[in-house]
Amino acid sequence: MSEPNFQLERWRGDFGNSYVVRNQPTEEIVGIMEHVFRRVLSAAAKSPASILEVGCNIGINLRALRRFSSAELFAVEPNANAREVVLKDGVLDRAHLADAWGSALPYSDCSIDFVFTSGVLIHIPEPALQDTMREIHRTSRRYIACLEYFSRDPQTIKYRGESDMLFKRDFGGLYLDMFPGLKIVDDGFFWRRSTGADDLTWCLLEKP
What we know:
The chain is α/β, with parallel strands linked by helices and 208 residues long. Helix content is 35%, strand content 23%. The chain has helices at residues 6-12, 14-22, 27-42, 60-66, 80-88, 128-139, 171-178, 192-195; strands spanning 50-54, 72-76, 97-98, 112-118, 140-148, 155-156, 167-168, 183-190, 200-206.
């Protein structure tokens, strides 16, 4: 597993704290993400009994999942201010929220039915990206989902004035290249104009 990288340290510090302030769990955004995850989970053959979000920030996706899923929810989040909001708002308790990052998940092999990222892989550089994907694959019992920005060829995009904090690529394709046994269950695109979501390409993959 890779050691924490300087991008991760930014997310744990003032850069990440500013993100927490900008992103509030409004009724509108939680409702949008409820629609998103209802669609993603509808593709699964069986509703997962446990779900892990890698990089939950203030828990917008978890709040959306709580509205319709009975799954036991877990999350990892490296930013202390974000974790404080998740705990204060009762989204998760301390037993279900870990101070951790994607390349060092504190869960045993095949322990969570459904493991996902949403707008997280785009912020992870190599080699931590592949380490994170290996950890997600290791931890997942059955399903892996990623909701990220897509580019057929890897691109680095300027983000909040920084030139090394956002990376677009075909993340689903990278999962399939790294783990040939994975099966494509479904995929799609959440267009901002029609869904309100942030132009996210998504895929749902299943372990053999």
